[in-house]
Amino acid sequence: MTDFLVRRIARQPRGAMARIALGLALAVLALGIRLSLAPLIGMGAPFTAFILAVLVAAVFGGVMSAITCTAVLAAGGIAMLAPFEQPVALRRALLSVTFFAASSGFVTWMVALLRAALAREVAAREAERLLKLELHHRVKNTLAVVQSLAHQTFRDTADVTTARDHFDARLSALAGATERLVDSAWRPVTLDDLAARALAAFRPADPARLVLDGPAVRVPSEVAVALVLCLHELATNATKYGALSGPAGQVRLSWTVDERGPRARLSLEWRESGGPAPRPGLREGFGTRLLTRAVRAQSGATSALEMTPDGAHWRAAFEV
Fold first, then answer.
1. For a 10 Å CB count at each end of the chain, is N or C smaller?
2. What CATH code is carried by the domain that includes residue 209?
3. pLDDT at 183
4. What span, in angstroms and rounded, lies between the C-alpha atoms of 216 and 60?
């Protein structure tokens, strides 16, 4: 019940005519009640009973409703006090109207502050509810990714130590991606910043051997984690077996954006050159499955991995 009242008071009435009509109806109701009591208490001091009507109008109708109610009640109160046969009666009526208008203005102002505070409270509660739902969703997704990483890393492995090292490295990549997304409040992140963070640990002394090239573009948060894991997998294999394992190899990560369709389409390419002949290890296992499937959940996504004489060649594309 309390939450209902809070939401009802904080909610802004929809139309100006509705607010004016509410104020007018409350004023007429208050005048009718006051006139019905006249045989019992007389017609003196009518304004003392009108503040409650202004308060209700301000609470449920807003400032415009309260002003309408105040104006109608002021006119009705003056009519109740008429005729003014003596100057003192006129001064008393004017003083009563002035005091009623001032009191009504103060009540309206206080209620307006209360409504604003309640609106902020309702907005904060809604934001907290959405945050809890989003956190629940993100935690479930992250745990699912961790579970998949563990299952795929340790499945059919005889070297537990190496598998554990791979798992730790992949968890670190996942943690880095999650940290970047948290910093951006889970909004889309720039691809150059995401790639630079994912590849920072693999950069050789010569920066020309690992080149990032592409326009400024933001990628959705739901694909950012998959991209980081793919780049980490590619860089790990390039460092161990590919272009970055020798003194002269080079890796180039480039991307382009095609904006001719209804939605922009991002195309990425990881190309190694100058490295040793590729080992078959990248062709099988979790790394290959990750690189060919991770981003395919995106709309219109494609991905392919090819082993060339110079090293790995990975291409992926999806809508952003």
1. N
2. 3.30.565.10
3. 64
4. 49
Place of tokens 């009718």: 32
- Helix 191-199 and helix 221-240, axial crossing angle in degrees, nearest 10: 40
Q: Do 203 and 72 share a domain, yes or no? A: no
Residue 58, CA distances (Å) to 64, 88, 121 in order: 8, 33, 19
Total structural domains in the chain? 2
* Structural domain boundaries enclosing 48: 2-126
| 105 φ/ψ angles, rounded to the nearest 5 degrees | -65, -40
Same domain membership, residue 261 and residue 114: no
Looking at residue 236, what is its pLDDT? 83
The answer to whether residues 108 and 58 touch, using CB atoms and an 8 Å cutoff, is: yes
Q: Is residue 222 in some structural domain?
A: yes
Closest by CA to 283, choosing from 255, 316, 244, 241, is 241
pLDDT for 254 equals 94
Count other C-beta atoms under 10 Å from residue 217's C-beta: 16
State residue 211's pLDDT score.
92
Please identify every stretch of the chain with a pLDDT value under 70, giving residue numbers as ranges: 1-14, 38, 41-48, 81-86, 88-89, 130-149, 151-158, 166, 170, 173-174, 176-186, 278-287
What is the three-class DSSP state of 212? strand
Domain boundary among 78, 104, 126: 126
**For tokens 């002035």, what's the residue?**
98
Q: Could you tell me if residue 208 is inside a domain? A: yes
Residue 74 covered by a domain: yes
Q: Tell me, what's the pLDDT at 283?
A: 44
Give the DSSP per-residue string, 216-228: --EE-HHHHHHHH
In this prediction, residue 282 carries a pLDDT of 46
If asked whether residues 109 and 190 sit together in one domain, one would say no
Locate 12 and state its tokens: 């802004």
Q: Are 312 and 237 in contact (CB under 8 A)?
A: yes
Residue 257 DSSP class: E
pLDDT at 281: 47
pLDDT value for 268: 93
